[in-house]
Design brief:
The chain has helices at 3-6, 14-36, 38-76, 95-107, 110-124, 137-149, 153-171, 193-228, 235-255, 257-282, 285-301, 303-307, 318-344, 350-377, 382-391, 394-404, 408-439, 446-462, 475-480, 484-505, 514-524. It is mainly α. It holds the Pfam family BCCT.
């Protein structure tokens, strides 16, 4: 057998092999450092985290506003009728499967981890000056949670990339499924091939950085729940759980997109709905309902103020540690989620994709965070959970809330199953897109995906050895910062591509066809817009 067959790289060129082994080498090096020198890695990551957010927190906020405006323009202008995959494309998935895949891939276990962690953190360490005078700190904390993980976060970072990748890779039938394909509107690949190669490599590293954050959160949260709630005092149990997830993942790899990823997403989605209902029933129901409504009013009535809150005269970095951190995480995570959403949204219009990726998840995350946030902020819960957070970390706070709740063991089992499901769907979809970007193919082979999955699973296990949960926060901002410039280019290239495609597909009588426009533009030196 050809040695390249083992890695699923048969028939690929040298650049493609470089993508794969370059990223794999960097990932393997990170795993080794994390296993051998966890304290040193923690110090380095935290220092980089502080520097990025202190210097560039404003940039993430400003870029986020521009991306939201661009998203609404694309969805509700005439370009909203453009269908990903072309006008003759048919949806591959039913509405439920489509929404389930988009939702479970787009959020991961952050709904559980940060659904508890952020409100409790804000109550424990409130902003230096309140952006909404008169609001209780509990309602303000939940309002920030809605801002960061409901709206406008998803509209900022997921949809622009999904639309750009969908238009370039599927609608225009370019047969190039790499991230760099979106630069072909402004640059010639033959002339600037080295830059295209660097962009793809940077994209792979940024995606891995976002994945490392979520896998790290999940690994440490699972270990804490198994220890504090179920008395499993050794990491061997968590290692065993990750090994089981890995085996199920390998099975999903061979089942593929339509059976493996789709079914895992559907099961996880149902588990999430069931758990939310059980938690609402056995938790502090009346308080959950009241604080959800109160926080919703604060969130919706003060959306621009909360999104642009920087506390410039306070001398603190509170807003940057929250809003800028979230936008950086979305940016790193959005490269992978956006490309995956584009893949599963073939046959849907831009406007329909807006509903699946922004409107529906906003409603679902609002409900979930209202239930989870109201649960831990309720009288009788907020004190012990805040104390656990102050003395330890977010995973301990989550475990403490579980032990305080009636039928806590049932809640614990459900949350472990949900997080395991999120890990599985995240790995499934992540390796699918990592492999597709690496190989430049719409349907990457199972062998290459298996290699990516095995290495990402090891990365998740490695995070169990990091001495502080906060170290995981550093991956996304550090990896995402250089790639934020790509989002600026992305807005322009997406608009140009949509405009050209619209002229060709929906041209009015007497209007020149697209190819005539581009030929005339090339002769005149214009860009064709």
């Amino acid at each position: 057998m050809n040695r390249w067959n083992v890695f699923g790289l048969e028939g690929t060129d040298r650049a493609t092999k470089g993508f794969f082994f370059g990223t794999i080498t960097a990932l393997a090096a990170l795993v080794c450092v994390g296993l051998l020198y966890p304290a040193a890695l923690e110090t380095t990551l935290n220092s980089a985290f502080d520097w990025v957010l202190y210097r560039f927190g404003w940039w993430f906020m400003a870029l986020g506003v521009a991306l939201v405006a661009f998203t609404f323009f694309m969805a509700f202008s005439r370009y909203g009728r453009i269908r990903i995959g072309g006008e003759d494309a048919e949806p591959e998935f039913g509405v439920f499967s489509w929404i389930a895949m988009v939702f479970t891939v787009g959020f991961g276990s952050s709904i559980v981890v940060w659904g508890v962690g952020e409100p409790i953190s804000i109550v424990t360490q409130p902003p230096p000056t309140s952006p909404v005078p008169g609001a209780s700190i509990e309602s303000l904390a939940l309002a920030f949670m809605f801002l960061h993980e409901s709206f406008p976060g998803m509209a900022m970072w997921y949809l622009p990339f999904a639309l750009g990748f969908g238009l370039m890779a599927y609608t225009t039938e370019s047969d190039d499924y790499r991230i760099s394909s979106m630069m072909s509107v402004v640059l010639d690949r033959e002339r600037y091939g080295w830059l295209f190669w660097l962009v793809d490599l940077a994209a792979l590293i940024a995606i891995v950085g976002g994945l490392a954050t979520t896998l790290g959160f999940t690994a440490q949260q699972l270990a804490t729940i198994l220890s504090d709630v179920f008395g499993a005092e050794t990491n061997l149990v968590t290692y065993g759980l990750f090994a089981l997830i890995g085996l199920v993942f390998l099975g999903d790899v061979w089942l593929g997109l339509h059976k493996g990823i789709r079914n895992a997403a559907r099961v996880t989605f149902v588990l999430m709905l069931v758990t939310s209902g059980v938690l609402l029933a056995v938790g502090p129901t009346l308080f959950i309902l009241n604080i959800t409504l109160d926080a919703t009013g604060i969130w919706l009535n003060n959306l621009p103020r909360l999104a642009l809150y920087t506390a410039p005269t306070s001398g603190a970095q509170w807003p940057q540690s929250w809003t800028s951190f979230w936008w950086a995480w979305w940016a790193a995570w959005g490269l992978f989620v956006g490309s995956f959403v584009a893949r599963v949204s073939k046959g849907r219009t831009i406007r329909e994709t807006f509903v699946a990726l922004v409107a529906a998840p906003t409603l679902l995350t609002w409900l979930q965070h209202g239930i989870i946030g109201g649960w831990v902020l309720a009288p009788g819960y907020v004190g012990p959970v805040s104390e656990a957070f102050a003395q330890n970390d977010i995973p301990t706070a989550v475990a403490t809330a579980i032990t305080l709740t009636p039928f806590g063991t049932v809640i614990g089992v459900l949350l472990v199953l949900i997080m395991a499901g999120y890990v599985l769907t995240t790995l499934d979809s992540a390796v699918y897109m990592l492999s597709a970007i690496t190989l430049g193919e719409e349907e990457p082979n199972a062998r290459n995906r298996a290699w990516w999955g095995a290495l990402l699973t090891v990365l998740g296990v490695m995070t169990l050895n990091l001495p502080a949960f906060s170290a995981m926060e550093a991956f996304s901002p550090v990896m995402a910062l250089p790639f934020t410039l790509f989002f600026v280019v992305l807005m322009y290239t997406t608009y140009v591509t949509a405009r050209r495609y619209y002229r060709e597909e929906y041209k009015e009588p007497g209007e020149r066809p697209y190819f005539a426009i581009t030929r005339a533009s090339e002769e005149s030196g214009d860009d064709g817009t």
